[in-house]
Write a structure and sequence with these properties.
This protein is mostly helical and 207 residues long. It is built from six helices and no strands. Pfam families: FTCD_C.
């Protein structure tokens, strides 16, 4: 059964089991999808309200982007599980097999590429949530904050799944390049997610 076709209970039970998939990367993609869905909800609660007529076009555009991004993250739940299969197979190649190094290199690259894409998608979601927080209904502002926190956590979690693969790469220059891309995403989007949370907390009367 495909990951996104499982019930919530089935997904969590399999995540909690010794099954190799879903794992941290797939869970990160799912949490990112939840985060962007919360932003989309803010948009849906804002659209059509006379009070927010001035930002109606912006909100509708945000909703369209959020729907597409959520679908992309849902697909990455599946992609992360699929990427693990060749890696598991590569570990089974005998150490004295001449093809092992090339097989491992390809499998590790594939396994690192998916969480890197999850990080990028979560960054895009954080950018959308910035706008939802600024323009969306005040009645749903807490949901924009929650969405930003979820996407921040998902981005960081996906980053760990990049690192767990790059650390094993024989090509250290390529590994450093992937690690640098992951660090750039953290540097750009984590402060922005924190700012959304801080803005929401302040608007709700927090510190």
């Amino acid at each position: 059964m495909e990951m996104m076709h499982k019930t919530c209970e089935e997904f969590l039970a399999e995540l909690a089991s010794k099954s190799a998939t879903p794992g941290g990367g797939g869970a990160a993609a799912l949490v990112g999808a939840v985060g962007v869905a919360l932003g989309n909800m803010v948009g849906c609660l804002t659209a059509g309200k006379p009070k927010y007529a001035a930002v109606e076009a912006d909100i509708l555009a945000l909703n369209e982007k959020a729907e597409a991004l959520r679908a992309r993250l849902e697909g990455l739940v599946e992609a992360d599980a699929a990427a693990f299969a060749p890696l598991a197979k590569a570990y089974g190649v005998p150490k004295d097999d001449p093809s092992r190094a090339a097989v491992m290199a390809q499998a590790l690259d594939t396994a690192a590429a998916v969480p890197l894409e999850i990080m990028a998608a979560c960054g895009e979601a954080i950018a959308l949530l910035e706008e939802y927080e600024a323009k969306g209904s005040v009645l749903a502002v807490s949901d924009a904050g929650c969405g930003a926190l979820f996407c921040r956590a998902a981005l960081e979690a996906a980053g760990l799944n990049v690192a767990v693969n790059t650390r094993l790469m024989a090509d250290r220059a390529h590994a450093a390049e992937l690690d640098a891309r992951a660090e750039a995403l953290r540097a750009e989007y984590l402060p922005r997610a924190e700012a959304v949370y801080a803005n929401v907390s302040k608007r709700l009367g927090g510190n």
